[in-house]
Structure formats: structure tokens, C-alpha cells
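Bug #77: duplicate submission created two jobs. Keeping one. Sequence:
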Amino acid sequence: MTFESWIFFMVIWIAASIPLGPNALNCISSSANYGFKKSLWSVAGIFIAAIVHMMLAISGIAAFLNINPMLFDVLRWLGVAYLVWMGVSMFRDEGEQDVQKRVSGVTSLQLVIRAILISLSNPKAFFTWLAIFSQFINSSSALGPQLVLLAPSALLVTVMVYVGYCMLGLGVNRIFSGDRKRWFDRVTGSAYLTFALLLASSDIRKT
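Kept job's structure:
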């Protein structure tokens, strides 16, 4: 792979990672509620899920899901159900503001697991990895050396983007207090429910 091709890959991957989605909302919410340091465990969960997405794409399992409607639909509806649960949970949030008090209410492991489940709940991630990687893999060359460059680059961008969303959560924590924080939770919950609705009403395989 040439340097120019790698730069183009990075630009494409950054563009694909930045849009606000369930992972970004989770990072912002975790940072606002539990503090920046603890929210980094959410990034760790996203990183683990990204490795899973990447391995599935590389192994061709994502392509199998794309041609197996029943298996794809089961996975898609599990994703819908989890996003609905997250949205309802945000609506039920009491809007507490003391970060130190809320930190004790969740463990690092819980944040990691929640981030993994949120990320894996969206089947579109499989196809994102598959679609972008397939454009930069040279089938006439050995796969290993190409992945040695592409895989760490993609994972590094993923981590940097979501650390940035965690930093954004610090501003949310300062700006949204009291009733304003409750409104933020409601908006975040509504966004989760919207993602669930979009996931339920669209066939990602046709996009």
C-alpha cells in the first residue's frame, strides 16, 4: 500500500467514525455522569467491540450475515431491543449531578460491558468495516502485511474519536445541571430510541 492510499484510507475512516451514533452518545453520557477518567472504560469497550467487528469483516462472516436474512434479522432485532432498553433507561434517570456520588454507582467492568453491547448491537458496523476494508485490500498481495498497517490505523482512529466524545461529555456535565441535565438525559434517551427505530425500519444490506 502506498502512502497516498494510506492517507486516503485514514480520511475515509475518520469520516466514517465521527458521525454521532450510539457509541458517541454512550461516551458523552458516561463522561457527563461518571467523569472523564471513568468514561475511558467505555472507550475500552468500544475498542474491544471494534476488534470483533474487524475480525468478523476480515473472516467473511459479515458477508455471510448479509446473505442470510434470518440470521441477520435476529441480530438486527436484538440490536433494536437493546437500544430501546438504553433509551428507556435514560428516560428513567433521576438526573443526579454529583459526579463522585454517581461514580460509586457503576463499576468499570459495567461500563466496558455496556459499551461492548451497544457497539455490537448495531449490525451496520459489520458492513462498515467490510465495505471500507475491501476497498483498500489488494487481493493479489498477501493479506497479513496489509492488515498490519490498516488494522492498527483504524483502531487508533476509533479510540481517538471516542476519547474526543468523552471530552465533550465534560462540557455537557458543566453545562447541564439540575433540570437541564434531566432534559439532556431525555434527549439522549430519545436519540437511542430513534436509532432503534431507524435500525428496525431499514434494511442495512440495501444501503
